[in-house]
Amino acid sequence: MNESKPIGVFDSGVGGLTVLRALRAAMPAENFIYLGDTARLPYGTKSAETVVRYSLQCADALIKRRVRCLVVACNTASASALGALREHHPTLPVIGVVEPGAAAAVAASATQHIAVIGTEGTISGGAYQTAIHRLNPAARVTSRACSLFVSMAEEGWTEGPIAEAVASRYLDPIFQNAGAPDTLVLGCTHFPALATAIRAVLPRHVNIVDSATITAAAVLQLVGGNSARVGTRGAVAWLATDGAARFARVGSAFLGERLDAEAIDIIDL
Ligand code: DGL
Questions:
Q1: Which of 208, 201, 116, 209 is nearest to 159 (CA)?
Q2: CA distances from 62 to 57, 70, 107, 192 (A)
Q3: Which of 66, 166, 179, 243 is the most exposed place for a label (fewest CB within 10 A)?
Q4: 74 included as an active-site residue
Q5: Closest ligand 1 atom, CA of 45?
């Protein structure tokens, strides 16, 4: 793997910036190219065939820019398109967020009853269930699509009574029962933004698993990132398919630092 090449990261929009943030924390000196397919988001409500097609186009755009590996920083795309991406690019390392998230959940759960929340596409495809069962065939998985969380996170409604009421509505039916799961996987890039509201409505003992950090650790292991190079911070090239101003505004909150609209190149896929 050529270490001078950047790491390619894509998502349907700004959500994957939570993954990029974890990647940069784990590998500060690495260079990245981030592509947000903002013209066609959300992916979470689209059919698996469409998400596969879009994901292959995102991958092509990054590969054209000579990336040394591909991080699928979107749960929906990881759930539907990882197989197709690996098949089309057999020599390029492709890492999604589902497998690391599933591994972290199996490691965290004492009862092996695990809850997974995500977009409609992620949940209906059953990718987390499959990944968890591959690690522990006896695990029990309870899952639920929480689509409204995506718009709430982009709107910045992440804490307080509205966020908690919506979190309760989605999660009480799962957690207010005897034998409820002891671990919850945030199987969507946007959901870590709502972690405080989600925490507030969950029983105290429930573990929350966010796949961003664990995915970053998996990427670091795979590419042997320049984490040891101190004093230099790598660069990020920003690509989006629409709306640089919105990408910068909403994305800044997900990234945890200010994004400049002028630094974002708008491309066609
Ligand atoms: N990035 C998507 C995910 O993690 C959420 C947003 C969308 O539906 O496009 O599933």
A1: 201
A2: 9, 8, 33, 26
A3: 179
A4: yes
A5: 8
Chain-centroid distance, C-alpha 61: 19
For 89-139, how does the pLDDT look when each residue is reduced to its tens digit (9 = 90+)?
Answer: 999 999 999 999 999 999 999 999 999 999 999 999 999 999 999 999 999
- From the alpha carbon of 12, which atom of ligand 1 is closest? 9
Is residue 228 pLDDT above 80, yes or no?
no
CATH of 98-211, one of 1.20.140.10, 1.20.1090.10, 1.20.1640.10, 3.40.50.1860: 3.40.50.1860
Nearest CA to ligand 1 atom 7: 42
Confidence of residue 67 (pLDDT cuts 50, 70, 90): very high
* Angstrom distance (rounded) from CA 144 to CA 179: 17
Question: What H or E segment, with its residue span, contains residue 69?
Answer: strand 69-72
